[in-house]
Design brief:
This protein is an alpha/beta fold. The protein has six helices and five strands, in the order H-E-H-E-H-H-E-H-E-E-H. The longest helix is centred in the N-terminal third of the chain and has 18 residues. The protein starts with a helix and ends with a helix.
Length: 141
């Protein structure tokens, strides 16, 4: 009986680590720190991708849950961009977001190494649309 409980416990631990993704890959977003994003872009010679969101926006949450969790999107962003999430409700981000012409969420802003806007789009994007948008930004880099 004891042996069966040990085996059952081992299967439970194994199952939950796979089911709930112990080492789940994710987009390496810098959270609300524009200065770090700029410095990383310069030191790594990569363009910047800024995801402008609000915590109460359903489409922002959907992008985060459904699209930024997809392996092809994670690889595209982590390998080719410095990624930063900017909360549109945070006062320190308002001037920058307004300067980029972002007037809703979610908004995706791609900037070159001189922080010049190359691509800006808003609204929900499926993974294929999102990757095409990112590739378009890279062509302009």
């Amino acid at each position: 009986m004891k042996r069966n409980l040990v085996i059952l416990g081992a299967f439970f631990i194994l199952f939950t680590s796979f089911r709930f993704g112990g080492d789940k890959k994710q987009v390496n977003f810098i959270d609300n720190d524009w200065q770090t994003a700029k410095a990383s872009s310069k030191s790594e010679d990569k363009p910047i991708f800024a995801f402008i969101y609000t915590s109460h926006c359903l489409l922002s949450s959907k992008m985060n849950d459904e699209i930024f969790s997809r392996e092809e999107v994670i690889n595209e962003l982590n390998n080719k961009f410095i990624c930063v999430m900017l909360d549109a409700d945070a006062l320190q981000n308002n001037i920058r977001i307004t300067a980029w012409g972002a007037n809703g969420t979610p908004t995706y802003v791609f900037l070159d190494k001189n922080r010049k806007l190359t691509v800006k789009q808003s609204g929900f994007k499926d993974s294929k649309e999102f990757i095409l948008m990112a590739e378009d930004a890279l062509k302009k880099y």
